[in-house]
Amino acid sequence: MADLEEKIVNKYLNEIDLKLTEWMAKYGLKILRIGLGVVFFWFGVLKFFPGLSPAENLVRNTIYFIHPDLFIPVLALWESIIGIGLITGKYMRFTLLLLFLQMPGTAMPIFILPDVVWTAFPYGLTLEGQYIIKNIVLISAGLVLGATVRGAKIKQ
Question: What is the pTM of this model?
Fold first, then answer.
């Protein structure tokens, strides 16, 4: 009797797992694209308002070769355009190009301002360091989205 109950439970759980997996396969990329777009748009818009973005001082101290009062609005626009492109799903090749061109700049503080990034190199990150390291996830999401631009399916 216990074996029969276990088989019924396993069958029921397998059906739930199958439905959830199908739902994720159907909507996962769209949710990833829109979620990534919201992050870029939000971070970009904050940079239009002096003192509102927590990354403003990091940008000011990293991009010392361009006047920050000129560079920050350009970066704000750049990130906002990436966000809008991802949210709408329009012009994805151009949007992802902008994303991948912007990402190396986000890593610059690791090399230019290591004292701002690390509490103890190589494992102790400051809040700013965590802010920078999370870009690994943004880059990974961009790679996944980029892999599907021509209609390819995600494979494991």
Answer: 0.89
